């Protein structure tokens, strides 16, 4: 369509050129073209919008429910397959281990090196026949007539290269990735290719390098389900001493290393360098530096003879990402020093000493193998450093592979036979099933953590219990506190009420008393004015002649009430005692001296004058109490009876008759007049008011009213004063100012 329109445009253009003038012929077609192009642009814009809408619709319709469903199904299928894969791989591992166990956890391979150039040049014949090697057998031609047959788990011919050797070794070494301890050691006469098999050369890498390469490959392969960490250590046992081959001897002195048994039962060498490796490049560099540090020397059998046992240890720490199961296993790759006949190798001096140590340790290894083979109760692992360090990886629950190296040379026949016999013994060992090595360090840590958690839980529970108890106690105390506060508030309001009431009562009492006093005064004044002259000064005072009682018939506070009030004195021990004593004494005195009397005496002065008449008249209150004479203490006998004051009057009973007679005399002298007696009998006065007076004891004795009046010690009766007494914790009976009113 566009093409047509373009053609149309072109036609139009052609036509236009024909119709218009030469001046307009350039402008109009261009304008037309611009218009056409604008229209086309508009069309294109519309189409773009339409297409964009279409695309939008497609994008929005992308999360189709069916698609989502299928996506979810695929996800669940993936999970299922993953689980199945894990199950299958674990099953494969189990079956694989079963096969290894059926084959025997201690396996023996035999490898024969090729004849060296020198041997070939010397025309040395091979004494080993490999015709039946396909059956893992070899024949040693001892002589023309005798051949000795040996059978191993695998026999490598001289032409078998390193790859073939590792292909057979690989299934065992890779068990370390499944958590099994593995030990591979090369054993044989010196110069038979042990180092060549284990270490190899850069061109012909040995078991060590290939094993680590394989471990890294497996680690990468199991990346989704397992997480591995590889640590490498390298040490040598030289003359029964352990030497760290990875330690930097240039910066730090060579440390003496010892074998220790760890908590989890494994044998460790504390202080040994454990270098983490993350790739084969790291391993190769490490192996090279370790091998450089190794003790080597030249013997007539081998130019670069290993004079020590070299041990490469690979620690594999695995964690199953699905089950979180952790494993920690060791792979020992051991290149033993060569067994040699001292006489034959013609060594002496330091080399001889080295050879003796080497032979001794190899002999110890032979003893351990023999003990394991014969299932002896005691395995002499500790007879040498070599067997001691390999204790966890030799026999028992680990996988062991021995590669016995032999020489095909007729000159080495004797050593070859020795090595093959030894290897045969090793192969005869029936070990139990290998056991997966769980990471016991982690387990131990977990156990410790569990124990700590349990302990912490207990402590937390205890603390929680304590806290709850304390909270309960606190709540109870708060409750008590609130109750007490409420009580205090109630008591305060009660006290305030009582105070008000008392003030009112006091006010009323005072009013009553003042009214009485004023009326009494008026009466007395009247009586005195009518009958008696006013009292003169004391020195001119005449003896009393007449006594009149102007006290009201009833006291504002009855005596019983006052006694009761006194019992409300403060409850101190001393106060209580005093009050009790006083009360009992008062009761006793009341019983003896009833009726109580109070006498008011008005005395007129002897020389009445006009001025004296205007003087205030004096009133004297006299108390006469009938008391048991035995309780009386007079001033005269106060010293004899230990008189100390009013409060002690009744404490010492008077028992002596002489004192009684004196008392009778005093009674006659100071006894009240007969007319006063009559008055006293009708005057109800509180006995307690006069308690403590030395003359109050007996009404019969109180003969002299003036003396009685002067020695009277009145009691306070005002409620206010009583309250004051109460507050001051004073006894009810108190010596006070004489109530003689002037
Ligand atoms: N399978 C083999 N193929 C080729 N060369 C070999 C093989 N085995 C050993 N050799 C060679 O034999 C020589 C001695 O080998 P090697 O040093 O490994 O013996 P060794 O048992 O470790 O001796 P020593 O116990 O004295 O250390 C080396 O030069 C090595 O290259």
TrEMBL record:
Q: What is this protein called?
A: Uncharacterized protein
Q: Which domain of life is it from?
A: Eukaryota
Name its species.
Bauhinia variegata
